[in-house]
Inverse folding.
């Protein structure tokens, strides 16, 4: 074979090339194997971490179910505890047992790193608790205000970090949550875990859409007035249907018109609301006191009066059903409520609770009263006037007192109907004035008795209807005194002739300017509406009366000089009983009904109704004229201190000697000497048959005008 001279060394080159390829292949395979090994290891570690996370989640769920799964539990954040003490972990969730209220709360966290796994979830109920009623945290248990344990930084893990919540600032507690890692208990597993359980139940749900119509008479709109769900945070956004689409709170700026309506052009840091608002909170109506679900009373409360009276809530005696909670559990209890005249049966009702005490039975309010409160939305009316997307109408309500009121409880009127002092219609404090201390010879506890001193003929009236009315915020009586001199010409005969002299005498006039202020504390309009006027008087919606001024006196002093160091003529001054003073002005005034004011928005108008806007204060006083005093006067919706009423008794019951002793040039002083007590009553015409008539003249029977 013939060889070419140009191919020397080719075999060597080829061999080196093959060897280089093999080396490269080996390096590549080695690198690939290394990468895959590391990827497999990372995958294994990730799987282990994920499994550790699942373990932590399952431990957390078990801890949650163990502590909060029962119905008789209550939850709250740690920042409500330990008043005056620094709570180092304010966002922890505590669980209180309502069946064992003396137990300290448990805290839903994984626990301390220096304790074994699961130590934090051990029961805090000691074996001897039922006998000792004492319990405390065991050594090693971690509670929010514990100061003896501080984990090192290398053991901590952020569960709620700075990207989710904000640190403490001013009075706002820190929203950050960091906990140490707890080692898993198994010897053959090298892993740690940590968990914190937040309480969504204490957060406000912000993505509930407002689906009710704005129509005034729409049933959903009416029901909303008594609904516990408040659509307030995002209710003004135009597209309510977008709210359920939110999955995170920081997506809220994507909602239509959010910047213009909510943010108002300023950026919002949503981290400050992490522990306060929620997009997913929900719950059930569990009964934390007795366990189980709460009874839905709305269906029973929507029944008619006749049907409701047949239930255990109405009378408490239907087929053995019971609605009154006693020390023995729920029992059927009948409580007399109102004794009716005309041979009608005594009304009775089931109280919400009843307890046996030394004085008798402590009764709770009736289920009728709670039902009436539930049904207030049915009595709300609507008037046009406001503006805005959700303000097409303004709710209004006819104000009313407790029912049965005084007129129903004591329709006969005169004090003699009960034989008790200060017991007329206008002077009674609802149905209880004849049972409080001082009104009965033998005082009783009205909260623990159904009868007046055990008299079966006289019941203590209990409310079946709740009150909702503006209240009298202030009553002021401004007194001013005028001292005027009058001269009387007298012919004086002497031994040398006769001469005419004028002798002065002083008239003291008392002017009274009453001022009444009423306030509507509710978020709806309130209207006071009078009954129908009769020929004998003008009907008003409300009045304020004064009574029981026994022992109260006016005292007038005259001083001999401007230093007021001594009195002239009468060292103690002249005194007159206030009740007698007003009786002198109006013969129909007496101790039980001394004087009264009728209130009207416009005393000159035929309609004496009064309507107050939500939160409104209304002032009633006299017109800027001075008139003669009477037992009953009308106050206008105005404020004017120039008007009032003057007395018309020249001597104030002091006698003629007092008129002769007063000197127009000497200073005088007026003092009101307080007596035993003073009663001020606010009367309201609100229930069928109620009348507050300002009579045009004295009543034929004085008792009928009380």
């Amino acid at each position: 074979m013939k060889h070419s001279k140009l191919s020397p060394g080719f075999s060597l080159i080829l061999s080196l090339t093959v060897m280089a390829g093999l080396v490269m292949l080996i390096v590549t395979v080695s690198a690939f194997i290394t990468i895959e090994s590391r990827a497999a290891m990372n995958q294994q570690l990730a799987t282990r971490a994920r499994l550790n996370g699942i373990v932590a989640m399952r431990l957390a769920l078990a801890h949650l179910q163990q502590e909060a799964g029962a119905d008789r539990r209550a939850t709250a954040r740690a920042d409500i505890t330990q008043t005056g003490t620094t709570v180092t972990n304010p966002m922890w969730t505590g669980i209180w047992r309502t069946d064992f209220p003396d137990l300290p709360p448990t805290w839903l966290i994984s626990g301390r790193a220096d304790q074994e796994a699961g130590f934090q979830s051990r029961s805090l109920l000691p074996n001897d608790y039922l006998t000792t009623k004492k319990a405390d945290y065991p050594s090693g248990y971690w509670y929010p205000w514990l100061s003896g344990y501080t984990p090192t930084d290398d053991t901590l893990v952020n569960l709620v970090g700075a990207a989710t919540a904000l640190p403490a600032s001013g009075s706002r507690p820190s929203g950050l949550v960091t906990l140490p890692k707890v080692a898993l208990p198994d010897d053959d597993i090298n892993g740690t875990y940590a968990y914190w359980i937040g309480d969504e139940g204490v957060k406000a749900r912000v993505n509930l859409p407002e689906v009710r119509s704005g129509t005034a008479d729409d049933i959903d709109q009416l029901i909303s007035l008594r609904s516990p769900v408040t659509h307030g945070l995002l209710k003004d956004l135009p597209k309510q249907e977008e709210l359920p689409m939110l999955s995170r709170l920081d997506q809220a700026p994507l909602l239509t018109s959010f910047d213009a309506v909510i943010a108002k052009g300023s950026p919002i840091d949503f981290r400050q609301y992490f522990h306060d608002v929620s997009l997913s909170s929900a719950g059930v109506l569990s009964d934390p006191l007795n366990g189980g679900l709460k009874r839905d009373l709305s269906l029973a409360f929507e029944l008619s009066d006749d049907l409701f009276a047949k239930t255990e809530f109405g009378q408490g005696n239907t087929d053995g059903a019971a609605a009154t909670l006693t020390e023995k559990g729920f029992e059927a209890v009948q409580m007399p409520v109102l004794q009716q005249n005309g041979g009608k049966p005594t009304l009775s009702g089931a109280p919400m609770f009843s307890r046996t005490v030394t004085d008798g039975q402590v009764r709770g309010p009736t289920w009728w009263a709670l039902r009436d409160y539930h049904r207030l939305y049915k009595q709300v009316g609507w008037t046009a006037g406001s503006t805005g997307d959700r303000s097409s109408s303004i709710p209004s309500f006819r104000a009313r007192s407790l029912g049965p009121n005084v007129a129903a409880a004591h329709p006969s009127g005169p004090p003699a109907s009960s034989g008790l002092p200060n017991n007329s219609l206008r002077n009674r404090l609802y149905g209880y004035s004849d049972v409080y201390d001082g009104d009965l010879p033998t005082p009783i506890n009205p909260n623990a008795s159904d009868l007046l001193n055990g008299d079966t003929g006289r019941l203590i009236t209990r409310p079946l209807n709740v009150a909702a009315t503006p209240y009298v915020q202030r009553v002021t009586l401004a007194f001013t005194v005028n001292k005027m001199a009058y001269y009387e010409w007298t012919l004086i005969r002497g031994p040398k002739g006769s001469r005419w002299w004028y002798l002065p005498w002083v008239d003291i006039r008392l002017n009274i300017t009453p001022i009444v202020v009423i306030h509507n504390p509710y978020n709806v309009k309130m209207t006071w509406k009078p009954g129908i006027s009769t020929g004998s008087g003008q009907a008003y919606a409300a009045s304020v009366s004064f009574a029981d001024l026994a022992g109260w006196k006016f005292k007038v002093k005259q001083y001999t000089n401007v230093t007021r160091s001594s009195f002239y003529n009468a060292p103690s001054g002249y005194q007159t009983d206030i009740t007698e003073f007003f009786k002198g002005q109006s013969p129909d005034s007496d101790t039980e009904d001394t004087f009264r004011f009728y209130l009207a928005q416009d005393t000159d108008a035929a309609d004496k109704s009064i309507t107050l806007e939500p939160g409104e204060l209304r002032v009633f006083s006299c017109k800027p004229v001075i008139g003669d005093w009477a037992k009953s006067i009308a106050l206008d919706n105005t404020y004017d201190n120039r008007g009032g009423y003057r007395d018309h008794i020249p001597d104030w019951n002091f006698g003629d000697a007092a008129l002769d002793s007063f000197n127009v040039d000497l200073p005088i002083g007026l003092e009101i000497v307080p007596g035993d007590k003073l009663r001020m009553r606010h009367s309201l015409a609100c229930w069928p048959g109620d009348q507050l008539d300002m009579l045009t003249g004295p009543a034929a029977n004085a008792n009928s005008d009380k």
